[in-house]
Amino acid sequence: MFNKFDILLFNNLPEGETLHVHCVSGYEDIGEHAIRTSEYYRFSFRYNIIQANIAWCNIWWNGDRPLVEKCDFKECRWYFQQDGVYLKHIPQNRLEWESDWVK
């Protein structure tokens, strides 16, 4: 009934660039965080099938936002880079391109 998900957001942007995130898990506002280059932010939540709660994040860098909306694994590793956003495909240990940055 309760599946645990770990979300990791990695800032792989150029040196000195800050990635901003504001996440909500279920009904809990996790708050806004500034992630420096080469650092990451991690949070976990438990998916409740009955309440159908989800986690989501607003993410931005230099006024641009990515268009990402999925996570198919129990541990989601998002990599935010200058050329776009990547999701790590853990079983195959590779990054998959997911989105450009959009205004």
Keywords:
61% strand, self-incompatibility, 10 strands, signal, mainly beta, 103 residues, secreted, three-stranded antiparallel β-sheet, five-stranded mixed β-sheet, S-protein homolog
Give a verbal description of the structure.
The protein has 103 residues and is an all-beta fold. The protein is built from no helices and ten strands. It has strands at residues 2-11, 19-25, 28-35, 40-48, 55-60, 65-66, 75-81, 84-89, 94-99, 101-102. The strands form three sheets. Strands 4-1-7-8-9 form a five-stranded mixed sheet, with no helix packed on it. A three-stranded antiparallel sheet has the order 3-2-5, with no helix packed on it. Strands 6-10 form a two-stranded antiparallel ribbon. A hairpin with a 2-residue loop joins strand 7 and strand 8.
How would the blueprint of this fold be written?
Elements: E1 2-11, E2 19-25, E3 28-35, E4 40-48, E5 55-60, E6 65-66, E7 75-81, E8 84-89, E9 94-99, E10 101-102
Family: Belongs to the plant self-incompatibility (S1) protein family.
InterPro entries: Self-incomp_S1 (IPR010264)
Pfam families: Self-incomp_S1
